[in-house]
Write the structure tokens for this entry.
Amino acid sequence: MRRLTLTRRSFLSLAAGTAAAQPLMGATGSWGWLDEPAASAAPSWHDQGVLDLAHSPYAKLRNVPVRAVTLSGGFWARRRKTNVASSIPSMHEELLEHGRMDNFLRLTGASNAPQRGPVYSDSDIYKWLESVAFALQSQDDPALRQTAETTIREIVAIQEPDGYINTYYQGDRKKDRMTVPTQTRGHELYCLGHMLQASTAYYRATGDRTLMDAGMRFVDGYILPNFGPEADKRPIVSGHPEIEMALIELYRTTGERKYLELAGYILQGDPRAELRPEQIVYMNCGVPFTTKTKLQGHAVRAMYACCGATDYYMETGDAAYWKTLEVLWKDLAQAQMYVTGGVGARSAGEAFGEDYELPNAQAYGESCAAIGNMMWNWRMLAATGEARFADVMERALYNGINSGMSLDGTLYCYRNPLAFDPTSGEHIRNPWYDTTCCPPNLERTFASLPGYFYSTATDGLYVHLYDNSEMRWALESGNGLRVTQKTNYPWEGNVRLTVAVDQPEEFTVYVRVPGWSRESRVLVAGKAIAEVRAGEYLPVRRRWSGETVVELAFDMRPELVTANPAVAEDTGRVAMQRGPVVYCMEGLDQTKGTDARAFPLYMANASGATHGEYKPDVLDGVMVLSHAGAKRTESVDTLYALAGAEKAPVEPAELKMIPYYAWDNREESSMQVWMPVVG
Ligand SMILES: [Zn+2]
């Protein structure tokens, strides 16, 4: 049996009991930091991480609370600080200015503004609330909490007696509510899914379950009595997958199995909805998830469907689901993912293309899709403990996700191309989009980031990501654990991990050795480990006692990367990667005197040397790379020429590269990730 559903009163008394828990003194008596309850005790509302896998029978790993990990003085600490200080407040202003809260207030008479924004506008508010929740999980902020509480009050105030909440379909459009055509386009369940995700995150931050109770009333009072597989109920089409993973998280949080069963029914699809084949492909729902054989259709929908299906697998162990997830993951990693971890090649339909269809300038690579990719791989990692999933996660995080927000935290990318020509007139970074799904999605991801650094397992601890940080948590045995990381990752490859246990205990620390690190060294208490393999977790099993230092050295040499020859756009080209960071060239850093369409002029020398220099004043501090290459001394003005005819003259040129995530943070300029090779 899972955790009992607790009443509000018992939740509060549990919370009070937690706060009063006696500090556990370490064996050395040197620190009294463990005011956390032991992880083996019944977990409390604030002991759960991004996901609550404490009782998921088919999850190998369990999350660590966001609040247990403090990032400070490193790469992601800066990003998170900008997120909380700048992005979250400025996005709140944008949301208000664009009428997103007026949509709620209008329904209680507190505003007479007309409905504004697309059908999914409520989800913008919910995602923003979720980002606030994760920020509060790390650190309380009374003003921010008050804003969130007001927002939640205003949301809940519009709830109808049967539980329904959706500002677009309350009032004039009530008659269209949850009809099959509306389910395919109206995003009602998508909005509910984001409401539930925000509510569980907010509950884990504050213990306040007002929003979660409202979400449960929606499901219990409106969905379950009227919709479902039974003959006397109407079918459900998720339309835009999202509700599946949200319902499963609600199940994990409340122990109410009906939410898992509802998610399973939605993942299965209901033939009574009579969807057209192209709708099924585009929406990634409507037929059994287990019938999928490749990633197709709308990329965010596909990634969220995979998240829900992986969550379903972790609760049920359904082997057909796992088989499908493996097939889809191979399609992702071997044929459909950009080198940046972005996914969804086509602008048309914001969709996956054919295998190896990965255009650069035309790349869609929606920020939300890269986030969906990370969320899915986080779940696959939790199910297995396999490092290949963490490698994809890290690739997406440092590149295709990180590119989505400007360095000052106020501009956002909807699409994340891998080449750009400013003469196109397109502005890639903007403060607001009418479909503003990406900005708050980026905000919730950065706010939740500490929760992605570690996991626990029955036999120990997994270390997934590296940055200056401190974790204060406990092993699953209940033994207090503190892990600190000192590093300049990703600019330097050395990480000094200090593992401190409350009581001596034999367990395994699984240290992730990134797939890109050609040569890695690991020393435990000064003693080198013989075999360290890239792309795996190195299991360090020992009797840990007091403080133990684990020194890691990853290979941060810049590496040229080639694409599968089937990727037509990358033929004869290379990309540059250094550690987890993918690089690009921006026109403004190159030798002047070329026009804006300069990139055909520059070529990398495949065997040329690369030099790196850390520049603290450039783009908030980045490792700038210089690579030996060549530049045509004049542009080519013929569209076609006979092969073998005299080539345009070239001269040596040093190519300057910056991290891809930091592109378009200065004056607009041309950009490319994949560089032609000299020859
Ligand atoms: Zn988006």
